[in-house]
Amino acid sequence: MNKEKALELIPTDGFIKVATEKKVPLDSRDRSALIRKGNEMFNRGEIELAKRIFLTTSYSDGLIRIGRYYEQQNRHIDALRMYWIAPAPEKRDALIETMSSIVRKWLKEEG
To answer: How far apart are CA 19 and CA 27, in angstroms?
Structure first.
């Protein structure tokens, strides 16, 4: 893929949106029920629905699991977004380091 084609593929709104929606006030019982439902959805493979629930409930462990899933699917930008929101600084930093080493390699190949 040439540089021009790669630049055309960059989303106009950027790669990472880290701001989450307004927090929904939930009592602990409702939050726990939603998290259980999110885990159930994740286990059934309904990843996007589980992600919405985990984002709504600010469930860090669930967001990290979604991030790992995205990494396995080679959706590294989406994984980075989940790690950033979770927050999971170790996973985020490791992924950033991996991605930056790939970019450095590409730059050396072109240079």
So the answer is: 22
How do residues 61-105 score in pLDDT, each as one tens digit? 999 999 999 999 999 999 999 999 999 999 999 999 998 988 898
Please give the model's pTM, rounded to 2 decimal places.
0.76
| Of 57, 79, 62, 61, residue with least CA distance to 70 | 79
Domain spans, the chain: 27-110
CB of 94 within 8 A of CB of 71? no
Instruction: Name the CATH superfamily, with its identifier, for domain 27-110.
Output: Tetratricopeptide repeat domain (1.25.40.10)
Q: Cα separation of 96 and 80, whole Å?
A: 8
The closest of 87, 95, 94, 40 to 63, measured between CA atoms, is 87
